[in-house]
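Each letter names a residue; the fold follows as tokens. Both lines appear below:
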Amino acid sequence: MSIFQFLLIAAIVVAAALAVKFLPGERSLALKRIFAILFVLVAAFAILFPSALTIVANFFGIGRGTDLLLYVFIIMMLLFAVATVRAKARSDARVTELARAVALIEARRDDQLNDRRDITGPTA
């Protein structure tokens, strides 16, 4: 194994560990860990045995392993973009919901203050 292969595998392991640790959402933590481990194993295999990637690409009717990597990367980036847009939409909806709740609370508070002023009379 060359030093470059070792560094690539180390970088992939670190990136997967950081992704599992810092991505939000405890509900799917086990699933994230499983995918991170699978990603590391497949990436390490592709780095250590690059000719195997070409064999896999040929099985799917793709000429080179690098082309297969490019196609998979494009698909993954599209999925990431869709997931990011959906997460932003959920976040925006939550902020809107919270803003409405705060506005209602403030309106009720103002009504209560006005009612108290009406009962006690004008303040000097």
Q: What stands out?
A: The radius of gyration is 27 Å.
